[in-house]
Structures are given as C-alpha cells and as structure tokens.
Amino acid sequence: MKRKATKIVELVIADDSEELTIDAISLVTSPAIEQDFVFFGKENNNLTFAKVDEEKRMLISPALIPNKQIFRYDPNTDSNYYVFFSKETVRKSSELYLEHNNHHKATYQHEDRVSGVLTVESWIIEDTKKDKSTLYGFSLPVGTWMVKLRIDNDEMWNKIKDGELKGLSIEGYFINKMEKMGKQQFSNEEILQALNELVSEKKIDLAATKISLGLADDINKKTVNAKKLITVIKEQTKKIKTLEKFLDKYSKEREKAKDDSRKAASKYFDLQDKFQKAESIYDEAEKKLDRAMKRLVDEDKNLKKLSDSFEKEKSKANKTATSLKKDLDKFEKSAKELGVKVPTAEPRKILNQLIKLL
After folding, report:
1. 335 lies in a domain?
2. How many CB atoms lie within 10 A of CB 351?
3. Tell me: the pLDDT tens digits for 222-281?
4. For residues 206 and 174, which has the higher predicted lDDT (pLDDT)?
5. Which H, E and C letters describe the chain, residue by residue?
6. Which residue range forms the structural domain that includes residue 287?
7. Among the three residues 180, 201, 234, which one is the final residue of a domain in this structure?
C-alpha cells in the first residue's frame, strides 16, 4: 500500500544544542529544498547576464527557504510527512552557522567530509526585487538564507561542472516545535501520580507497566555525559591535529638542519681557505639541529600524552554509547509495549553523533 503524508511539522532550534544547529553544508545531487545552485565557470556557464573569462569557482544557492515544505520519511513509523522552517528559524540558523565557525565545513552527499569548500558570503533576502539573488536568476521569498561558496576542491568542482551535483542541503540538528513546547521536566513523584491516574481510569495495567523511572533518569544522565564527551573529543581531536602540524614542521626543520650540516661539513673538509666561514655555517646548522631535535622531542611527548588521554576519552565514549543505546532500546521497547510515545529523538541524535566520532 502506498504511504501518504499524514502531517506537516515545523522544525525549530533546540535551546540546548545551538552549536549543532547547522553543522555543515552538503553538496548533493537532489537538494531537499528543490532549488539548484548557479555557478561561475568558463565551461557550462549558466549565467546569462555576464561573460566569464576564467573559472571563479563560485556557487550561489539558497541554503534554507522559509515555509518551504520538505518531504521526509520516518522508517520507525513507516510514514511520510513534511517539515518546514519559519523565517525566524532560518535567520537564527544562518547566524549560528557563522557564530560557531562552521563556514569551512562541507560534505559530499551528506556522507564524506570534504575540504576546499568555503562559505564566503551569507545573507538573508530582505527585498525580493532589490536583492542580488535576482541577478543570478533566483526568485525566492523574503527570509530566504542565501550563501556563496568558493570551491577549491578539484573533484567537487568537476562534479559540479558535469552536472552530477545540482544543489545544497544543510546538515544540522532541529527538533519538532511541538516537542519543544511540551519539553517539560517532571519529577518521579509527578510521573507516579500520572501513572496512578491512568491505572484508576483503566487506561493502563500497572502490572504490565515496564517503564523504569530509573532507566529514564539513566538515559538523561548518559545523554548529558555523551554531549560532554562529544565536546571533549572534538577539542582533543583539534589539539592533536595542531600538534601533528607542529611535529611535521619540526621534522622538516630537522631534515633541513641535517642537510645544512652536511653541506657545511663538506665545505669544511674541501675548502681549507674558507675554513672560518664554513665552520660558522656548520656551528649555526648544528644549533638549529639541536633546537629542532629538542622541539621535536617535546612535541612528541605532548602528542603521546594527548593521544593517551584521547584514547581514554574514546574508551569512555564507547562505553557510554553502548550503554546509552542499550538503555534507549530497552526504554523504547517498553514504551512500545505500552502503546505510548517517548521523547527519545534527542538522545538518539546525540548517540549517533557520538558514534560517528568513534
């Protein structure tokens, strides 16, 4: 039987996850907002208002269109539905995207992270007639978030020119507006009272109730812990990459110093009449070598120390992810047996993000 869309959901920004709102922009074959980008290039140029003499490798595209209904499918419920974003959510998303320094993050088909894709302009359409997006052939509503990307990645640029990639799609974390409005913390006493009322009204059988308040608390605590681990792992990953760059730099300095030392020694033995000059060069090269060796040893120690800490955090994260998944599965199974819906979307989202980092 063909599935039919049953509802339209407004997506909003979660107050406790603003840094995850727009994590990256993805180059895709079929953009969810059904708008293709335009690009500057000497080949397959689809801009009619100007002649381009050289490849500028720039894309102009809407990132989010307010009130645009986007089709989605939920495999958990085997149902179709539509989502949309208000003007306020679109504007706030564009601001958070820059605020959290995500302008350099991009993916290919929502899967592989790619380098060489940079957002160089970002703006909100305020006037449909005067906005510069009209110069590129767009006719979009007020409140649309527009971006201009520079593509330095040769592989991605070739896919764009060949027509394989046609548009942009955002990657981020949003929640159902109704879930946010109803996102209220209840005490165990309040939950027990509600269960008693349901039992008294014969809506549920207390003997069949398998939902554990302790399990719900565990899920909440582990979700918070998972968020912290995500932050720690991201920070340590960044530090490790920085140390690796320093290590590479000092390794090159060491090799250069060794080369200078060999050249100086050669001059010392081959040119007696230039002994003083060669000796000076040799001594300086040896000093550089010593400094480079010391820096290399220091940075190697720092890298090892941070790597050990990183592995410990990954181990914690693995345990947390395994435990959280087990608890969520048990929690959802219990809720399903009772025929009730439980708000596990956020823990699932956090869990998936943690797993991707492992």
Report:
1. yes
2. 22
3. 777 888 888 888 888 888 888 888 888 888 888 888 888 888 777 777 777 777 777 788
4. 174
5. CCCCEEEEEEEEECHHHHHHCCCEEEEECCCCCCCCCEEECCCCCCCCCCCCCCCCCEEEEEEECCCCCEEEEECCCCEEEEEECCHHHHHHHHHHHHHCCCCCCEEECCCEEECCEEEEEEEECCCCCCCHHHHHCCCCCCCCEEEEEEECCHHHHHHHHCCCCCEEEEECCEEEHHHHHCCCCCCHHHHHHHHHHHHHCCCCCHHHCCCCHHHHHHHHHHHHHHHHHHHHHHHHHHHHHHHHHHHHHHHHHHHHHHHHHHHHHHHHHHCHHHHHHHHHHHHHHHHHHHHHHHHHHHHHHHHHHHHHHHHHHHHHHHHHHHHHHHHHHHHHHHHHHHCCCCCCHHHHHHHHHHHHHC
6. 211-357
7. 180
- Residue 80 and residue 5 in contact, taking contact as beta carbons nearer than 8 Å: yes
Given a cut of 60, whether residue 351 has pLDDT beyond it is yes
Residue 309 has what pLDDT?
87
Distance of CA 5 to the CA centre of its chain: 29
Residue where the block lists tokens 């003499």: 53
**Phi, psi dihedral angles at 125 (to 5 degrees):** -70, 120
Task: State whether 13 and 87 are in the same domain.
Answer: yes
pTM, entire model: 0.47
Q: Is 200 part of any domain?
A: no
Q: Are residues 154 and 80 in the same domain?
A: yes
What is the band of 34 on the pLDDT scale with cuts at 50, 70, 90?
low
Domain membership of residue 191 (yes or no) is no
Same domain, 108 and 167: yes
